[in-house]
């Protein structure tokens, strides 16, 4: 049951988690030290990003590979390792499955112009659990609790409906 809950809830929380970890692909082997967020139409317009892809860099870890490569807050990452980046999980996958120490090409939009940066990911720290709840934002925790309650309500409703339909069916069989 727990794995079913994680499978149901993880996609909603995937964009709440730092870009150096991803619930849907498991523990990464590499990291570059950025935090990103999905783009809204307003952000796309403001940062002159493509309509179909891109994630906004909201934090760059000091001394991390991304900082060394010149990535900055406000950059829009549109591809990594030659693959388009449309959501934070796309970047997490490209970086997390790359080989630490091997150069990774990252295409960004800065000041309305496409620029390519080369980042050398480092090994990601190993974790004892598939994720650390302390890393979830308060909003993420509330969302997790809300979705679990919603799932439990839905299961109770489904069970009641099933019992009613089963009773109707059994009554009809008794009458014939």
Task: Characterise the protein shown here.
By secondary structure, the protein is α+β, with helices and mostly antiparallel strands. It folds into two domains: 2-123, PDZ domain (Pdz3 Domain); 137-175. 40% of the residues lie in helices and 20% in strands. The strands form two sheets. Strands 2, 3, 4, 5, 6 and 7 form a six-stranded antiparallel β-sheet that branches. Strand 6 (104-110) and strand 7 form a beta hairpin. Residues 1-26 have low confidence and may be disordered.
**Structural Rg:** 22 Å
Low-confidence residue ranges: 1-26
- The overall pLDDT, averaged over residues, is 80
Indicate how many domains the architecture comprises. Answer: 2
Helix % is 25-40%
**Secondary-structure element sequence?**
HEEHEHEEHEEEH
What is the fourth-level CATH superfamily of the largest domain? Answer: PDZ domain
The major beta sheet can be summarized as: 6 strands, antiparallel
Ends distance: 39 Å
Q: Characteristics of this structure?
A:
8 strands, two-stranded antiparallel ribbon, Pdz3 Domain, elongated, 2 domains, alpha+beta, six-stranded antiparallel β-sheet
Quick gist of this model?
The chain has 176 residues and is of the alpha+beta class. It is built from five helices and eight strands.
Describe the SSE topology.
Blueprint (H helix, E strand, L loop, with lengths): L1 H12 L16 E2 L2 E5 L2 H7 L7 E6 L4 H4 L7 E5 L2 E2 L3 H9 L7 E7 L2 E7 L2 E2 L14 H38 L1
Antiparallel strand pairs: 1-8, 2-3, 3-4, 4-5, 4-6, 6-7
Helix pairs in contact: 1-5
């Amino acid at each position: 049951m727990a794995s079913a809950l994680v499978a149901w809830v993880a996609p909603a929380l995937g964009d709440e988690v730092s870009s150096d970890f991803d619930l849907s692909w498991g523990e990464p082997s590499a990291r570059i030290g950025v935090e990103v967020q999905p783009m809204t139409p307003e952000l796309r317009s403001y940062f002159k990003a493509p309509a179909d892809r891109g994630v906004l860099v909201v934090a760059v870890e000091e001394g991390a590979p991304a900082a060394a490569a010149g990535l900055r807050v406000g950059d829009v990452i549109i591809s990594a390792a030659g693959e388009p980046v449309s959501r934070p999980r796309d970047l997490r996958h490209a970086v997390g499955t790359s080989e630490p120490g091997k150069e990774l090409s990252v295409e960004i939009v800065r000041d309305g112009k496409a620029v390519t940066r080369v980042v050398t990911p480092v090994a990601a720290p190993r974790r004892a659990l598939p994720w650390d709840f302390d890393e979830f934002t308060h909003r993420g925790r509330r969302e997790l609790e809300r979705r679990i309650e919603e799932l439990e309500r839905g299961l109770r409703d489904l069970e009641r409906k099933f019992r009613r339909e089963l009773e109707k069916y059994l009554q009809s069989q008794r009458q014939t």
